[in-house]
Write the structure tokens for this entry.
Amino acid sequence: MADYIEGKRPVLEALRSGMPIEEVFLSDNLERDTLVKDLLRKCKQRDVRVTEVSRTRMESLIAKAAPKAPAERQRKIAAQGVVAKAAPFPYVSLNEVIALADERTAACGRALIVICDHLTDTGNLGAIARSAECVGAAGLVIPNKRSAHVTAATYKSSAGAIAHLKVAEVPNIARALDQLKNAGFWVVAATEHAEPLLWETNMEGRIALVLGNEQSGVSDLVRKNCDLECRLPLEGDVASLNVAQAATAFMYEWLRQNHG
């Protein structure tokens, strides 16, 4: 299913973030204000096709872009006169991520693959992708069902980093962990229910880091399939961290232990 982005600013942000866009639709009576001129300039730079459409056609596109929005909201969006159709994100196989990890291991003796156990927020997925790309992770692994997928929000929260990171969709996380173990990875669950602290845990070499759902954390089935588990200490009054913030701490501890 195509991913549609509606509104002048959201479409312009998607273009700036590097999200692959197939086509931008403009209402044929749209005023060429500063935002629209910037948008058209960015489309030209990226060689994105721009198509002018009638108000009726625009309303039809809005219905696809925001099917759950109330009719009044859809009319307001249509009045902005801008909708973009995003290209499908180029997901890869888990084998491709492992192959890149093998290259990283051969080059510097370390590799990191990040597994997201049914995250639901696309913004969190983007923030995790940004940190993963910064530490040199070989890729992300996400379930192909009941999980956040790569959308315009992911590109925005990753500051475009998602475009430079391999992302594999898998039908079953537990089986993916078995495949990673067979490929020589130690599987580490990041969970607040663990006893060992992160910096008491060996994160050297080839690590598959498992991050849990925003509400329930790493599932029991997945935890049972991990080699190790560890947690971050929480000494303040607020006894929790956003999963993306916690993920950054875990990834940088992996990098610290493997540095040099």
Summary: The first strand starts at residue 3 and ends at 6. Strands lie at 3-6, 21-27, 49-53, 82-86, 111-116, 139-143, 167-170, 186-190, 206-211, 228-230. The radius of gyration is 21 Å. The chain has a mean pLDDT of 88.
